Amino acid sequence: MHLDFEKPIAELEAKLVDMKQLAQENNVDVEEAVKSLEAKIKNLKKEIYSNLTRWQRVQLSRHPDRPYTLDYIADIADKFIELHGDRGVKDDKAMVGGFAEIGGQGVMLIGHQKGRNTKQRQLRNFGMANPEGYRKALRMMKLAEKFNKPIVTFIDTPGAFPGLEGEERGQAEAIARNLKEMFMLKVPVICIVIGEGASGGALGIAIGDKVFMLENTWYSVISPESCSSILWRSWDYKEQAAEALKLTAYDMQKFKLIDEIIKEPLGGAHTDPQGMSKKVKKVILDTIKELNQLTPQERINQRIEKFSAMGVFVE
Amino acid sequence: MTWFKRTEKGIVTPTEEKKEVPDGLWYQCTECKKVMQSREHSANAYTCIDCNNHARIGSMEYFEILFDDNNFTELDETMSSSDPLEFSDTQAYPDRIKGSQKKSGLKDAVRTGYGKMNGIHIVVACMDFRFIGGSMGSVVGEKISRAIDYARKKRHPLLIISKSGGARMMEAGFSLMQMAKTSAKLALLDQDRVPYVSLMTDPTTGGVTASYAMLGDFNIAEPGALIGFAGPRVVRETIGKDLPEGFQTAEFLLEHGFLDFIVDRKELKKTLTDLFTILKETKEAKQPKKEKEKSE
Lengths: 315, 296
Hints:
Strand content of chain A: 15-25%
Largest sheet of chain B: 7 strands, mixed
Number of domains of chain B: 2
CATH topology of the largest domain in chain B: 2-enoyl-CoA Hydratase, Chain A, domain 1
Oligomer: heterodimer
CATH class of the largest domain in chain A: Alpha Beta
Shape of chain B: globular
Number of helices of chain B: 10
Helix content of chain A: 40-55%
Largest interface: A-B, 54 and 62 residues
Low-confidence stretches of chain A: none
Order of helices and strands of chain B: EEHHEEHEEHEHEHEHHEHH
CATH superfamily of the largest domain in chain B: 2-enoyl-CoA Hydratase, Chain A, domain 1
């Protein structure tokens, strides 16, 4: 699938396929032409992907082929035991997690989960968790703390689910509690935005010692669409809203609202999922090593200090 | 045939020369339309003398209701919003701030202060809905954080009165992180066992509900207040049908187990006084903590 701004690349790639096929059928030597076209594609890709607008990055973060939490887990974990349920209401399928082993290191992996086809999307509720999802995540974090295993969270949600039952069961309370409890976790906590990081629904599992964003993701207080509908009273200003919100990984890092960016392959994480996973795995293992240098109390203090410093005002 | 004819169209009197009706002699209840003297209304803690509707009021009124003789010291009085994102929608953010400041006489959407309530030292943070819908940006987050720090340092009970549409979009990522920051400070307050009461008033939604408003040792609310994560319009659009009667009201939340109690505004001061009196630290209670500190 190609996004609208990728069309010129898609056209050239189609041309290349045609050319190769034609050459084969008619037994003509087109090596020179192929080479030049390939170079042209490479240059075009570089040009397009290194000048992405904020809205284009939002589109990439939602690319239907983009790896999701369970894809990363499948790639990076040598062992994975998925755990279910919040012990109160049900098992929220929009939030997944369990104990895993990565490169000999025991960890707790938790994340929002989106679905890839219609059926899966419904099952996963489009990655929008209900209160029981946040409570399930907290339960798993407490387990990790108990057994002294570092926690890694994968953030990828268009928001916490704004439904009737979620309100009845305390969506706000569930998220608020996670924020408070995550600050006090004695084990290292690493958070990685792998797709969409929408508002409280994202933050609810994103209080960490180190917060990373993949290069083509977004993280903000509201989605560009909703922002457009509230501030411009129309859905048509999403591009402007994305620009105004400054919601990309580069923006968030510049504002010191996240710690680091994990680079993606040209064209996005979905163009080389294995390569992407490898990078993510390395980041996780290196970061755990780094965070293990600190005592639990030092980690907690630094976590609190980091978030306490966020905010710009005049006195 | 008319008796008088307007020679110039529209209103031509400049604002400065506008003649105001003397303000505040009468008040009409927005709910039951009962007309009462403003004096009566304010003496009744700004609730209707007939139907008990709790009018939306601001920090000025709450401070007056709670602090003895309206005596309090305001914290971070001059703190004001900056424009880290250079945000502009239909209006540039700094202009929006300036406009709101001029219109409301407030610096931002929260005021914090400390003083005595029936002789008990308390710290109060109170949001003002009049200021950009009581939205939470860096100033709200920082002022609340500092009020929490102050309560922790002095070991004085903390009251946060929420009234907000949620996080402030014009500070985007910064606003979001205020949820984290205030929650971090509350975790510390919790650890030090200083009481925190969260009073939710009409309306309390979005990022404010999903952070400090729901993190009280005691979560309480005013009668009839709208409290929720998503606003009713969003929920209605999500489920595609009408919402049940009383959905997301304080009474609904109490029934679902998210509030300790609902308090009539006229009883607020007395109820909080009773609560804080019961919780007051005695010498015996302080002892084990000191010992614990030594052993750590």
